[in-house]
Design brief:
The chain is globular and about 80 Å long. The model has no long low-confidence stretch (mean pLDDT 96). The chain has 2 domains: 58-292 and 390-461, TIM Barrel, CATH 3.20.20; 294-384, no CATH class. Helices cover 34% and strands 18% of the residues. It starts with a strand and ends in a 16-residue tail after the last strand. Helix 8 (199-211) links the parallel strand 12 and strand 13. Helix 15 packs across helix 16. By secondary structure, the chain is α/β, with parallel strands linked by helices.
């Protein structure tokens, strides 16, 4: 007997093809598509999907929830959007492997304004980390190997070139992590110590990833734009792929709000690389706001040596003067302080600063902006998140709608004033880019959130509603689906996402969470995940 029968809806199967009338049968965790009259089909449970679209669960290839989900396993901001699988370990900041618990905890501390903190950090290997997710969270979890832990393992925390022996050691650790289930190599070349890696080092690591069927997922080296022009960071990424033979995925790819160059430069880079025969893809988010750790506003040299060295420099007046000079020379000028709003204050006396800009907080504290920022980082133990307008909203539709791009949230799920994309990235595509503005046809939008990211990652049995595929399913109302989350009121759940099913179990029912935790760890190399 069938466990669950979803009938009466329009099936949009994730391939990009038009929708069709059919029923979706779930037996255990596996899908079967049934056409024609299903009134005589016996099922333990039926869902009437009349008026709804039935599609595969959304796959998010850029999430910062790898630690916070361990403390909040129901993962409501994301599963309520229809997300059923996420990739953790992006921006080079994966959370394994480490030689010691101390090094793991230091890594978590340094980037706590970006990734948050878990209830406990009690793993060292990628296999151990995967075991923490398996059957304990609401969604499926995949992990990619960041180059930050590789650097810590072989080189340490210092800003210096790696030796050939150290690079070989990093490649060996990468291979072992991929043997334990990691899906490739990620970098975040604004985040030390991984950002201290040379291009040649990254080519060698990408070669190792490519030999094992992985790909290169990169937050590019934006500092290159200062001397090489606005496309230099992305040209380095393409060069790494070209010279290593590794597929390249450019994450949160968009035209910066400064409006440097044309969005056609960015689109053209990807199109030209693919015309050359390279495997290059990208993702983008649907809101114009960026988000990261407040530490990113400090020069990279401040983080050489690790979090303790950074804290010491923040306390040192001479070092603060050196930081101030860098801020004074920044092309952002006063925008650096006026256009970044902050969240994740944990000390009671600082809670009043939630959602305020650095300039506003400095005025409230009676300080200069840089002094206020440095003091707050010390008071909050580096754990502050900053959000700002980071995308040219006028050209964003070109990236969202491009056939080589997919949707990813870059979600940071902590703080009282988070980026609204953390609550609305995927429904906003359906409501605004499809229904309201018609930048995309619905089947193509769903492809960008389902089968295309599954293809990029390499998952063999998710991302499509096909016979034998895993039962990750979303049912939504195409006429009412909406993302209310805004900058002014970001913590709002979507409207119109009626059912979310993960591995055959209903997690969202009529818009409410059932409490089920059917998520699995998706390990590379497993034919059936």
């Amino acid at each position: 007997m069938i466990d669950l029968l979803i009938n009466g809806g329009q099936v949009v199967d994730g391939s990009g093809s038009p929708g069709f009338e059919a029923a979706v049968a779930v037996t255990g965790d596996t899908v079967t598509i049934l056409r024609g009259d299903v009134s005589a089909v016996e099922a333990v449970r039926r869902i009437d999907a009349a008026g709804l679209v039935v599609c595969p669960g959304f796959i998010d290839l850029h999430s910062h929830a790898g630690l916070t989900i361990l403390g909040e396993p129901h993962h409501e901001p994301k599963v309520r959007q229809g997300v059923t699988t996420e990739l953790f370990g992006i921006d080079g900041i994966s959370h394994s492997p480490f030689r010691t618990r101390e090094e793991l905890e230091r890594s978590i501390w340094l980037d706590s304004g970006l990734n948050g903190e878990p209830p406990a950090a009690d793993w060292l290997t990628t296999a151990d980390l995967y075991n923490r997710y398996d059957g304990t969270v609401a969604i499926n979890v995949a992990v990619i190997q960041g180059n930050n832990p590789l650097r810590v393992w072989a080189v340490g925390w210092d800003d210096r070139p790696a030796t050939n022996a150290e690079i070989a050691d990093m490649a060996a650790v990468l291979r072992e992590s991929m043997e334990e289930g990691a899906w490739g190599l990620s970098t975040g070349l604004d985040y030390p110590p991984g950002s201290y890696a040379s291009t040649e080092e990254l080519i060698t690591l990408s070669e190792a990833a490519a030999r094992m069927g992985g790909f290169y997922h990169t937050h590019t080296r934006y500092s290159l734009a200062v001397r090489g022009g606005h496309m230099a960071p992305f040209q380095e990424a393409i060069d790494i792929g070209r010279r290593s033979g590794c597929p390249v995925h450019l994450t949160h790819y968009r035209q910066a709000v400064q409006g440097l160059g044309s969005h056609l430069d960015y689109i053209g880079l990807v199109e030209d690389a693919r015309a050359e025969g390279m495997d290059v893809t990208f993702d983008c988010y649907s809101y114009p706001y960026s988000g990261t750790t407040l530490v990113i506003l400090l020069p990279q040299w401040t983080r050489s040596g690790g979090p303790e060295a950074l804290m010491a420099r923040l306390r040192n007046p001479a070092e603060r003067a050196r930081i101030r000079k860098g801020a004074d020379d920044s092309p952002w000028g006063d925008r650096l302080w006026a256009e970044n709003w902050l969240t994740n204050f944990r000390r009671p006396e600082n809670k009043r600063f939630e959602g305020h800009s650095i300039a506003e907080i400095a005025e409230l504290r009676g300080q200069e902006p840089l002094e206020a920022m440095c003091d707050l980082l010390l008071e909050e133990n580096l754990g502050i998140c900053t959000i700002a307008l980071g995308t040219n909203a006028h050209t964003l539709p070109a990236f969202v709608s491009h056939p080589y791009g997919m949707i990813a949230s870059d979600a940071i799920l902590f703080g009282e004033w988070p980026n609204p994309r953390s609550y609305g990235c995927f429904p906003l595509v359906l409501a605004e880019f499809v229904r309201a503005e018609r930048h995309l046809r619905l089947p193509e939008a769903i492809r960008k959130m389902t089968s295309f990211p599954a293809q990029r990652l390499g998952i063999p049995d998710r991302g499509l509603l096909r016979d034998g595929f895993r039962a990750d399913i979303v049912c939504f109302d195409p006429a009412t689906v909406k993302a209310p989350a805004t900058k002014a009121d970001p913590k709002q759940y979507p409207i119109g996402i009626e059912y979310v099913i993960v591995n055959g179990q209903v997690v969202i029912e009529r818009g409410e969470n059932t409490g089920a935790l059917p998520g699995r760890a998706l390990r590379r190399g497993r034919a059936r995940t």
